[in-house]
Amino acid sequence: MVSILTFIVMIVVGAVVLGFIAVSAMFLIWWERKVSAHIQTRYGPMRVGWHGVLQSVADVVKLLLKENITPEGVDKPVWWLAPFFAVVPSVMVFVCIPFGNLFGINLIARDLNIGILYIMALTSICVLGIFMAGWGSNNKYSLLGGMRSAAQIVSYEVPLIISMVTAAMFAGTLSMQKIVEAQKGMWFVFQPNMALAFVIFVISATAEINRTPFDIPEAESELVAGFHTEYSGMKFAMFFLGEYTNLFIVSALAATLFLGGWQGPFLSPVLWFLIKTYGIITVLMWVRWTFPRVRVDQLMGFAWKVLTPIAFANLVVAGWVLLR
Amino acid sequence: MSGPIQLLNNLLNNYGMPQGFIVQASFYVIAAFAVISALGVVVSRNIFHCAIFLALSLFCVAGIYLFLSAEFLAVVQVLIYVGAIVTLFLFAIMLTANIGDRSIRHTNRQVLAGGVVAIIISIFFIFVIIGEPWKKALVQARPLTLQEIGKSLMSAYALPFEVISLILLAALVGAIVIGKVRKE
After folding, report:
1. Could you tell me which residues of chain A have a Cβ less than 8 Å from any Cβ in chain B?
2. I need a surface site. Which of A152, A194, A229, B99 has the fewest CB within 10 A?
3. Which of A50, A65, A80 is where one domain is finished?
């Protein structure tokens, strides 16, 4: 029964990936608190477990046990569905993230030949969840947060996708696994075109996942908490899960497209992939706790007047370099 | 296609399930979702709900493309229609003041003319549906590779491709001109 075995393997892989997403998000929340604390010469969580490693577990238990509050006046179906729209596409992206190989088996759920395109398509749906949350909450701050977020994500999607396309051009394929293999000799980031594309990618990815310095959708001092102001308990936890999953995804993409993915000497490929990904995550956290928030007009101006033209010019030069 | 659905299908075939049952069942589920959400677009009274239904419907259509082994088309459908166009719709809805408070009317003054046109079109469709023998395709279309799509877009279909880009550009410029506030 090859068929039944394959099916069981598929289900097990799915479960493992889901478990990884949850544990990774919990770890990242703890790590973020630790990084921020040490940047501000504090200790951060210290009480639960060694240096507070179990703090996130305690928080998750708390969130699971919380009462599910539905505020009066919300647009119920939209309000209920929003957290799912925010999380499910992010989880689906994991189908084509190459985690490396273990004992000769490639750890990628499905190496689609349109991998990058698939990831772009799914990340572009995430914004629907934010919209629905902002609208469904029937709260002006949520609405403002949702609108800001949408404007920002739509704008920064352009340079993001163009920088990803540059990577695909250099690899000559859209399959994630083959892009990693194309970087066997040299990581893409060491080519001048790709180095620029990498910088553009990281900046616009930071904006895409609404992190400081581009966190105007949830600017605490202006908007309470933006689109998820009215959410509590498990629904709030879903938004948080989505946010940290997206953080992992963009870092994994940066590692895969520009830093050679799971390739590296001596250590196991899986380890290399995780080192690179969590390294980029740590840099993004460092950025978050160091830079102040930009203004709305600065944000949009930067996307359309600086990043997009540079990304396009870079794409043209990359095409010239490849066809020369 | 060797995805989970196909696998489950083959698995259950071994235990006496009719050939292709799961594949067909999942096709009908997705098709039904597409139709129901398309109905939601026109029936719903809240314009925001309409837009969400539209996104769902377009997403289900992408699923149907997957059944036709047109992966590229499916992904582009999600990227362009759900990710870009519906997002733009939602953006426009949110920017329009108080549009969510009003429930939209489903009829306007042209009920009579519209009704006549609708009836004519439905008669036409009914005739087409009845008249069609609905033969099953004997040859399954070969799934196109990405390279083939790219090459044909740059050679055989270069002109239509460019014309479409030009039309889009013209529409963009037009939108900006219309949307621009005129200073007296």
Report:
1. 1, 3-4, 6-7, 10, 75, 77-78, 81, 110, 112-114, 117-118, 120-122, 124-125, 127-128, 131-132, 134-135, 143, 146-147, 150-151, 154, 157, 174
2. B99
3. A65
Q: Are A58 and A93 contained in the same domain? A: no
Per-residue pLDDT in tens (0 to 9) along chain A, 324 residues: 566 777 788 788 888 888 988 888 888 989 988 888 888 888 888 888 788 888 888 888 888 888 887 778 777 888 888 888 888 888 888 888 888 777 767 777 777 778 888 888 888 888 888 888 888 787 778 888 888 887 888 888 889 989 988 888 888 888 888 888 888 877 877 888 888 888 999 999 888 887 777 776 666 666 767 777 778 778 888 888 888 888 999 999 898 888 887 877 777 888 888 888 999 999 988 888 888 888 778 888 888 889 899 999 999 998 888 887
Residues A158 and A186 in one domain: yes
Question: Do residue A121 and residue B78 have CB atoms under 8 angstroms apart?
Answer: yes
Q: Domain range spanning residue A7?
A: 1-65
Structure tokens at B161: 């491709």
Do B82 and A146 make contact, defined as CB atoms within 8 angstroms? no
Which of the listed residues A42, A65, A88 is the one where a domain comes to its end?
A65
* CB-CB neighbors (< 8 A) of A77 in chain B: 49
**B7·A118 Cβ contact <8 A:** no
Contacts of A138 (CB under 8 A, 6+ apart): A71, A73, A74, A75, A230
Q: Return phi, psi of residue A102, to 5°.
A: -130, 125
Asked if the Cβ–Cβ distance from B95 to A147 is below 8 Å, we say yes
Asked if residue A244 and residue A279 are part of one domain, the reply reads yes
Q: Which of A78, A122, A174 sits opposite B48 (nearest CB)?
A: A78
CA atoms of A242 and A218, how far apart (whole Å): 15
Domain ranges of chain B: 4-130, 144-184
My answer on whether A29 and A128 are in the same domain is no
Amino acid at position A88, single letter: V
In this prediction the ipTM stands at 0.81
A78 and B72 within 8 Å at the Cβ level: the answer is no
Q: Where are the alpha helices (DSSP H) in A172-208?
A: 176-182, 192-208
- In the CATH scheme, what is the code of domain B4-130? 1.20.120.1200
